[in-house]
């Protein structure tokens, strides 16, 4: 999925013409990907099978949302302690506070956009950027135009030009609307990776990409109660591993794509583990 040369394979979002079949399903067969999918399924089943989930699932969902927001903000450069995120009510101060506020707003908004996503993913992405930026600048809520700078503190890969961005966003939208036989993890990873590779907005691209991944995981039915926050896992795995895995995605090679999907799978597993720990704490009466 290279933005730097013609030797790499084209991105999945560009392979949507007649005869292209189901490119996401093809990615699901790459070496290591079926094992990652199965590992994620088992991790999700463990948390959903916990006895606390039968009685207090709303509490687990709320806590997972908070922890997921903290994780996404950490990857955006605002690595606050969980209790600080829990305690604060004003997120309008410095840049770090605004990033945490954006993550909290995006997590809350994601659950309201599930029904729209499958019909109009581009509309959802525009809404997510509006929610994240929370200001009235004219460039908010639309793809960036030629000459507009991009503020993205973590991703330093070459930026595709606006025409390429528009074409690949349209291709990604067609993939989502058409649906796929691919496992939810594969679709979520491709949506996440494509948005990070494109950085279609002038700001908050990483946070929007992680919110879109959340929407796919919830809306697909893999994590309908939103208790397996992948953002927690992405933060726990670390920024360096996140960027390295993304470089594999951008390379477009089968090995790179499989490594990115597996990385996203591990993040979901760690999110599920986090919520399992919350369940255990509630069961002990310690939280």
Automatic annotation (TrEMBL):
Residues of the region (Disordered) are 1-30
Which positions fall inside the Fido domain? 120-263
Cross-referenced InterPro entries: Fido, Fido-like_dom_sf
Top-rank taxon of the source lineage equals: Bacteria
| Name of this chain's protein | Oxidoreductase
Native organism is Streptomyces minutiscleroticus
